[in-house]
Amino acid sequence: MQANYLRNLDLVIRKIERARLSYSPHHIVSLIAVSKYVSIQEITALYECGQRAFGENKIQDFKSKAQALESLPLQWHMIGSLQENKINALIDLNPVLLHSLDSLKLALALQKRLETKNTKMHALLQLNTSFESSKSGVFPQDAHVLYQEIQAQCPNIIMEGIMTIGAHSNDYKKIEQSFVLAKDVFDSLSGVGARTLSMGMSDDFEIAIACGANMVRIGSRLFQI
Ligand SMILES: *Cc1c(COP(=O)(O)O)cnc(C)c1O
Questions:
Q1: Which of 46, 79, 125 to mutate to test the pocket of ligand 1 (most atoms within 8 A of CB)?
Q2: CA 54 → CA 11, 73, 96, 133, 214, distances in Å?
Q3: Which listed residue, 37, 39, 59, 151, has the most CB atoms within 10 A of its CB?
Q4: Residue 30 forms beta bridges with which residues?
């Protein structure tokens, strides 16, 4: 397992490196290892290869893995849809970043709980840039106003930027188009503090970086045997 993971991680890092250098030598990309398909043994193995940041998409799995791995200095990211009844559990897990804030209603519910618990959370606004009905997220045309509404109404949520999932397609152009839409929204929010653009997964992270992603979320490619 370890040898495969070392090879996977090395290959992914080299590809990230190549993509970010051709974007700009000053561009830095962080790698989130999406551990939703694997157990604590696999997470530990990748940690021992040098990976620190991990992403989970379900509160229940996040909780059991984070608790089991409490002794390791891991950074946890919440990347999946958040139901309102799971907000308290998420706050207690204290993720470094919530990638999937996707409505004012959810933001207000989160704000209320954060205020009660007297704590803060860093978050990204999730965009639906592929216009696929199966995907969550706000449409790009609504994002700018919503982002600032959340900032104005939710002082305990620290808005860090934008997240999107690329179009599910074999057509390079369609995937690229979804990332370009997210980059445009991201740029329009740079004046109000947006600095993280989370996009790119196992099959499309190089396209995402070419479009300006500075955080990629990679699962299957890192954990394949
Ligand atoms: C599963 C998942 C990923 C990683 O997907 P892979 O194709 O396994 O790299 C990234 N982001 C989100 C939101 C996911 O749900």
A1: 79
A2: 18, 11, 10, 27, 16
A3: 59
A4: 215
Q: What is the pLDDT of residue 135?
A: 85
Write the residue with the smallest CA distance to atom 12 of ligand 1. Answer: 79
Ligand 1 atom closest to Cα of residue 32: 10
pTM greater than 0.90 (yes/no): yes
User: Helix (H, G, I), strand (E, B), or coil: what is residue 189?
Assistant: coil
CA 143 – CA 102 distance, rounded (Å): 9
How would DSSP label each residue in 103-130? -HHHHHHHHHHHHHTT--EEEEEEE--S
99 CA: nearest ligand 1 atom? 13
Protein residues whose CB sits closer than 6 Å to any atom of ligand 1 = 34, 36, 57, 79-80, 165, 201-202, 217-221
What is the structure's pLDDT at 78?
A: 98
User: Could you tell me the CA-to-CA distances from 13 to 149, 162, 179 in Å, in that order?
Assistant: 36, 22, 20
Collapsing DSSP to helix, strand or coil, 203 comes out as coil
Distance from the CA of 38 to the center of ligand 1, in angstroms? 12
76 forms beta bridges with: 54
